[in-house]
Amino acid sequence: MDETRGTRAPGRASRDAFIASTGRLLRRQGYGATGLNEIVRRSGAPRGSLYFHFPGGKEELAAAAMERTGEELRVAIAAVIGSRPRASESLSALIDGLGAGLEASGYRDGCPIATVTLEAAGASETVRLAAERVFNSWLAELERGLVADGLDAEQAARRALLVLSAIEGALLLARARRDLAPLQAVRDELAALASHR
Amino acid sequence: MDETRGTRAPGRASRDAFIASTGRLLRRQGYGATGLNEIVRRSGAPRGSLYFHFPGGKEELAAAAMERTGEELRVAIAAVIGSRPRASESLSALIDGLGAGLEASGYRDGCPIATVTLEAAGASETVRLAAERVFNSWLAELERGLVADGLDAEQAARRALLVLSAIEGALLLARARRDLAPLQAVRDELAALASHR
């Protein structure tokens, strides 16, 4: 930390704080309910630096937060995918981990970018492109694991789309029902599908 | 219409108009971006009757709109599920229909209740319970089709959760990417899964 601090632009800590607080708010309550006032207050950073770092305002800040939380989850997916001998076992572990996190948050912390994507991708190309990049980065990790497991590139691309879609949808249903049954069903059905090939 | 009009409460048309405009706005832009002013303006109904019909305000109105659009989609699902000899063919037709609707709307009209569920289910028990009821009504139709296709009740419940989760997630990914590949992948993978049993 100390070695690199000297090379940082002034206010880099503020920029990070804005992104972190935006990421948490987007995950819990989405884009529409999250105002710049709340982002500034929770960040603890000076309000005056917000437009210095994010001249594009809330859209630009949301996109930066989506990229940040998206990259954190990509790293987590990559770690789990490589952790088990079979892709299907890795996927089960990934789904169980997401379910445990959701339950521990009182069914509030689902996918960090799904809510803002549904709300804003239609009106903001900035937000849509951030969402597309993040989803594609997750798909690439899933594909890598499926190819290592023996699927060809085309099968892996299709299967990865099913896997990510099913996980995203199960996180949605789990929030509505306040139970983990959708995630458990997806886990078991995907495992069954993997055993057929 | 004329026969029943006499028995309707005064302002029933206003109530319907509020619900219809709320449903369209929740589908396109979600809960946070939808204000009561816009709902009233688009409904064409008198503002003064809003709190008469919906004393619970925006939460109650959102729940009513979710139930309405949810019931419309349940009827559509039931019609498609019974339209083909095999459940897997019906599901493919359902997914293609949802994809065609999404594309025709410029990738704006996905699931009518997913956005509001992700935004508001954590903070509003009224919204969460409406979402839970609607998702369960769709699951029941899917289960019915899967049982008719030979799955036992437990298998059908699990498979229906996978199917609905995958469709919801694919609608999300399709909106982010502005392409139908996620829905097509889900359709093809679910058909392959069905052929194994």
Q: Could you characterize what this model shows?
A:
Two copies of one chain form a homodimer. With 197 residues, chain A is mostly helical. Chain A contains ten helices and no strands. The first copy, chain A, has helices at residues 2-5, 12-29, 36-43, 50-53, 57-81, 87-104, 114-120, 125-148, 153-177, 181-195. In chain A, α9 packs antiparallel against α10. The longest helix of chain A has 25 residues, at 57-81. The model of chain A is unreliable at 1-9 (pLDDT under 50). Chains A and B meet through α7, α8, α9 and α10 of A and α7, α8, α9 and α10 of B.
Summarize the structure.
The structure is a homodimer. With about 200 residues, the first copy, chain A, is mainly alpha-helical.
Topology:
The structure is a homodimer of 197-residue chains.
Chain A (H helix, E strand, L loop, with lengths): L1 H4 L6 H18 L6 H8 L6 H4 L3 H25 L5 H18 L9 H7 L4 H24 L4 H25 L3 H15 L2
Series of secondary-structure elements of chain A, N-terminal to C-terminal = HHHHHHHHHH
The major beta sheet of chain A can be summarized as: none
Helix content of chain A: over 70%
How much of the sequence lies in strands of chain A comes to under 5%
Straight-line distance between termini of chain A: 48 Å
Rg from Cα of chain A: 18 Å
Number of helices of chain A: 10
The oligomeric state is: homodimer
Tally of DSSP β-strands of chain A? 0
- Largest interface: which pair? A-B, 52 and 52 residues
Q: What is the approximate shape of chain A?
A: elongated
Low-confidence stretches of chain A: 1-9
Instruction: Return the average pLDDT of chain A rounded to an integer.
Output: 92
What would you call the structural class of chain A? mainly alpha
